[in-house]
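Help: read this over?
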Amino acid sequence: MSQSQPLENKKLLVTGPTGQVADPVARALAGNNEVWSTARFTDAAKKASLEADGVKCISLDLDSGDFSTLPNDFDYVLNFAVVKTQDFDHDLRCNGESTGLLMSHCRNAKAFLHCSTTGVYQPKGHDALSETDELGDNHRVMMPTYSIAKISAEVVARFAAREFELPTIITRLNVPYGNNGGWPFMHLMMMKSGVPIPVHSDSPSVYTPIHEDDIIAMLPGLLDAASIPANIVNLCGSEDVTIEDWCQYMGELTNLVPEFTLTQDTLESVRTDSTKLHTLVNEAQVDWREGLHRMIEALSPELLTNR
């Protein structure tokens, strides 16, 4: 693993800043860089909040192909935009075609990071999934278009990297979480409301979650690893954790008692192999327990009865 320089004094584009992952990324990078972000920005308060932290916000629909208001001289592009309407035509256009259109517009960048998902893998029980494992329609039981649209977007990114000679890295993101929320926080809200949490009947449900701080820390190394053809790497934490365990731990912190429902109508385990990732960047530093504690403290501190 080579030592990457911090991202400083660069002109960056971060798409999807109204989403869970790109929001903290854009804000963190804006401290030492010129950061632009694109989204529909239907929430004026969200846009104002990002701008207050130094992010230059441009309202546009990436799938329109009209980038006349967007510069094309970015040093790096980080594409976190995602659309999940469950309409196949719309989601293929907005996730797949828009990736190619954006890469065409930003073809002179030093590197392009496209955020995909470990939801593109064919389920493999409790075995760790590596970048060479089979792809499949992993998320259909919950989000019918999601896995297929994300696989399609990866294909477009791979094509565009070669067509535009744009060094590209495709990161397959496992469960992201942090002070901006995530799947564990959704589970906490279910616990608060007394709603049973579905877990797959092939229990326990194992994932490799990653805290937003680790995602941000890994970005310089990931961008350095962009290549032609596109590089593909799992983006995940260093610890495998089950839904059952993270809910039980949040219960210990809050005195809320999780209730689980075994079912086949939910996601199976998506445990990922971080071997390749750690040849490129340092291992994740945020322990999952610490990360969950910080998440609750940031979003629902009134629930913390056992600090």
